[in-house]
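note to self: dont lose this again. the chain is below, predicted strucutre after it. 427 aa total, dont forget to put it in the shared folder this time
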Amino acid sequence: MNNLLQFLSLSDPNVRMVVLGATLLGAGAGLVGVFTLLRKRALLGDAVAHSILPGVCLAFMVGQSKNPFVLLLGALIAGWLSLLAMDYLVRRTKLKADGVIGLVLSVFFGLGIWLLTIIQQSGAASQSGLDKFLFGKAASITSQDVNMFTWVVLGLVLVLLLFYKGFKLIAFDQDFARSVGMPVRLLEFLLSTITVLSIAVGIQAVGVVLMASLLIAPAAAARYWTDRLSVMLLLAAGMGIIAAWSGAYVSFAAPSMPTGPWIVMALALLTGISMLWAPKRGILGRSLRQWRYARKIALENVLKILFQLEERSGMAGKGYSRVSILEHREIEPGPLNMVLRRLKRKAWATEINSLWRLTEEGLTEARQIVRRHRLWELYLHERLNLPADHVHPGAEAMEHLLTPELEEALQRDLGYPVTDPHQSPIP
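---
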């Protein structure tokens, strides 16, 4: 607990620099990563991250300095060259996009490793620490780095705000953006530039190997929670910040633990939680909705069976045994018993001497289901010209999906009919 309070106070200057730097990098990468993910360019980010290394090495060899702005310029040039190379190879050769990405990544990264080896063997005192671009070392972030990160992230945010509408259009429908007169090539150039910038500054924290995670994971996690781009941007930035603080804290509490990989581990955890628990798209959320829907269908089917048995006998209020229900429709005895218990809890059915009958409330619910079924049968028969003996399966599926508004529209379209294609009355 003391460690956590000490960390949150940011009293240690080194901790303060690491937290501020990681926060800026996490937020910036999260924002840009949203558009990278939506444009289906996730692997492109990984290729650019690896391709930046030779630019950093050449910038150092020319300037003989580890000035972050000089290294950033070299990284930006190398990243752009890799994008141009990939674009050219895709357009001018028969290679597929994934093959081009792998080729450019390996060539540029191999060149970067070669240049880094030359620098390390040169004996230059100033080359110490350059390998952090390969594996990342957030713990070595300085105030000069933080200043650079601040300007870069502010620039990213400014560009996103100024061109938000255009970026949104090309992320979802580039052809439409072009048809309404949007400068698509300029917008793509700007998006590519800020993507390269965010990658170039981010590799100092997590390295070229893990940079794709910092770029894509916050956006992928945020996508599970919302359909709105503005909310997705805020969530991605927030998750990038949470991961940055988490990684910095682990490194603070256990100094032998590197910050960058733990930032990625935190992002992996956030993504996993989103995949499982997000209400609309999460695995558990989808499974819960499917389970509830299956229960709803089972309940409505048994209601319909009890109504049809009563309709067939012509005796209101008559009870029916489980055997009669099973004979009317093939249902497993176990699920049937559970559905009958649910009907009893809802007061839609009662059991007297092992015979089940609908209550007034249950009869009202059953009428609605049967009405939707028979209306849909009639619609399939009259509007789609399906034979009367072929309409049941479609109606069986749709009866559970029709809302009261759609039901009213269906009745109006059919002229408020009184019988279905089989001449059964529509309740």
